[in-house]
Amino acid sequence: MAKSRHGRRELHSYTIRGMYTMNRTVRAGDAVFMRAPETEKDPYVAIIQKIEADNRNNVNVHVRWYYRPEETKRGRQRFHGIRELMLSDHYDVQSAETIERKVTVHTFKDYTELKFISPTDLYWRFEYNAKTGACKPGRVEVFCKCRMPYNPDHYFMLQCDKCNEWFHPRCVGMSNGEANKLDTYVCENCESGKRVRKRPSQRSASQVGPKRQKT
Ligand code: ZN
Predict the structure, then answer these.
(1) Which chain residues have CB less than 5 Å from ligand 1, an ion?
(2) What is the CATH number for 164?
(3) pLDDT tens across 144-153, in order?
(4) Which of 84, 86, 151, 189 satisfies CB 3.0 to 4.6 Å to 128 for a cystine?
(5) DSSP codes joined into one string, 1-49
(6) How many angstroms is it from 142 CA to the middle of ligand 1?
(7) What is the pTM assigned to this prediction?
(8) What is the pLDDT of residues 80-99, one digit of tens each?
């Protein structure tokens, strides 16, 4: 084990105290919920960089914070899913005692492919600069008449059989139930013969669109 100048020892793991008996060992690279000082707030989410004990055996964790969209300068947008986080450039040191439990922060692509989503499944698709409030990537693929990035919480979308563009039923004046009954769908643009703006051709891992079919 590495020893540093101030009598601190680096630890390979830390065992979470508290009510969760399963999966209590955390290591560098694990994502965790950490108790927020205000008890009514959702727990903070961080990725552990390093675990250290001082000479009195107090254990501290070096963390990199994930921000919830509402904690960012722009605030929560309509396309942000309820389990969405942003990977910030904000590093910190916290007492290991504030760790509540281990969670999984998926990439956006992996999250959209999950079959089952548990309360500890979260995801990120943007990096966040805590000083400037800038997000990376600055542009992502958008869908529908509303020109919004994909929100995995609103995964039920209609696909136009002509241009293959995806639409939120509500944005084209339908309920999900009505949309579900359709065998085919042709969007307004294709019906009126208007040319549709082509989607951006480059796609990166963080620019993944809806996967699910319309029925
Ligand atoms: Zn829409």
Answers:
(1) 144, 146, 168, 171
(2) 3.30.40.10
(3) 999 999 999 9
(4) 86
(5) --B-TTS-EEES-EEPPSS--SS-EE-TT-EEEE--SSTTSPPEEEEEE
(6) 9
(7) 0.81
(8) 999 999 999 999 999 999 99
